[in-house]
Amino acid sequence: MRKTFVLDTNVLIHDPESLFKFEDNQIVIPLEVIEELDKIKKGPGEIACSARDALKRIDALRAGGSLAQGAPLGNGGWLRIASIPQEDDSVTVDNRIIRTALALHKISQDPPERPASISAPPELVYPERVGPVTLVSKDLAVRIKAESLGLQVEDYKNDKTSLFQKYGRVLGSLDSTNGIHSVRYAQGGEDLFRIQGRDLQTKIKNRRHLEGILPKNAEQACAQDALLNPEVEVVALTGDAGTGKTLLALAAGVHQVIRKGRLYEQVLVTRPTVPLGKDLGYLPGDLQEKLSPWMQPIFDNLEVILNTPKDQVKDQTVLSRYRSYQYLIDAGLLQVEALTYIRGRSLPRRYFIVDEAQNLRPLDVKTLLTRCGEGTKIVFTGDLNQIDTPYLDAASNGLAYLISHFLNEENFCYLHLKDGVRSRLAEQGALLL
């Protein structure tokens, strides 16, 4: 029996192609969702771009049929735009969407009689007859409220994955190569080995200094090897705060752009700047001043790597406050950029670091990867247990999505760093609190 899925706005923002991922079932979009998409469609950001994309896809379906009665999706399913009278204009948009789903649910339980004068197929006249109604939303509060009213609800599951939980560790001497073809690492005694393809093993150099940064454990040594290997074009590093993900990625990037015979022209660093829903426009100043609060963790790590002399820090003259990493920025060897301005660019020969990637949607990760030109290496770092974006979780964020889709690619490496190295106190806090 066919089902009816009512989509919340956040589902279409998360994945504008979600319309076509419910097989041959019926998709219903409340009119309030269209209004919300219309409100947020303006602007340069990824959210606005997704809203425009979703509206364009819906508009294209009008050529195949009436959106009021049902337009074919091309996969056997149908799309309808539904609107029900609202008794109170002060009701929130979320509650209106829930009310629409409830109304459809009631009709599906007790459908009206089909007028004898209408000769169209019954699923075009009363598509509610095709099956039970489910409200699909990435908003936890919406799901809780809707289920409390007797509705069937679910999260958008198309891009959820838990594969990252099975991989990413450094293998022991008795482990198999775990059945994937991406680059992974094994330890035998004091020796570390890189495993490529099916079972090609190469011993790697352990504990190599990079701009004064020395790996503190086997996991970091393996991560360092992957970051320095030009054949590994995509690297994903996960782990709790303080495991050294960002520091290692930056140290490897700086090393490879300032050394003679460098492979990359520039280190490009980006990270989500709107984890709590605020826009850069709310902050005063020019672009660099707006970026500064969000990018300060990057600058803190660069300060550790390049180490501004203490006498310069103490001296308060303008010249003496010139940070050691600033010369890299002025020389064009290092660029810190907002995600908003990555779209549309082509980035050849870059060492591209995407920090806090767990706060990205799968669509955002795809956008970033498709910006990479010839000779570019891209590194994603993040903590899958520390997600600030309200509509993402450990199984549906862009970093987990990337790992699940690249596990069998030979130019990819995924490592999960377990041991905290920031300080004894930081590790103690992570364990006890």
Sum this structure up briefly.
By secondary structure, the protein is of the alpha/beta class. The protein is about 35% helix and about 15% strand.
Ordered list of secondary-structure elements with their pairings:
Blueprint: E1 4-7, H1 9-14, E2 26-30, H2 31-40, H3 46-60, E3 71-72, E4 78-82, H4 93-109, H5 122-125, E5 133-136, H6 140-148, E6 152-154, E7 184-188, E8 191-196, E9 200-203, H7 218-228, E10 234-239, H8 245-258, E11 266-270, H9 287-306, H10 310-314, H11 326-330, E12 334-336, E13 350-354, H12 362-369, E14 377-382, H13 398-406, E15 412-417, H14 424-432
Structure description:
By secondary structure, the chain is of the alpha/beta class. It has two domains: 4-154, 3-Layer(aba) Sandwich (Rossmann fold), CATH 3.40.50.1010; 163-174 and 206-432, Rossmann fold (3-Layer(aba) Sandwich), CATH 3.40.50.300. It contains 14 helices and 15 strands. It has helices at 9-14, 31-40, 46-60, 93-109, 122-125, 140-148, 218-228, 245-258, 287-306, 310-314, 326-330, 362-369, 398-406, 424-432, and strands spanning 4-7, 26-30, 71-72, 78-82, 133-136, 152-154, 184-188, 191-196, 200-203, 234-239, 266-270, 334-336, 350-354, 377-382, 412-417. Residues 116-125, 275-280 and 310-315 have low confidence and may be disordered.
Give keywords:
14 helices; Rossmann fold; 2 domains; 16% strand; six-stranded parallel beta sheet; 433 residues; 15 strands
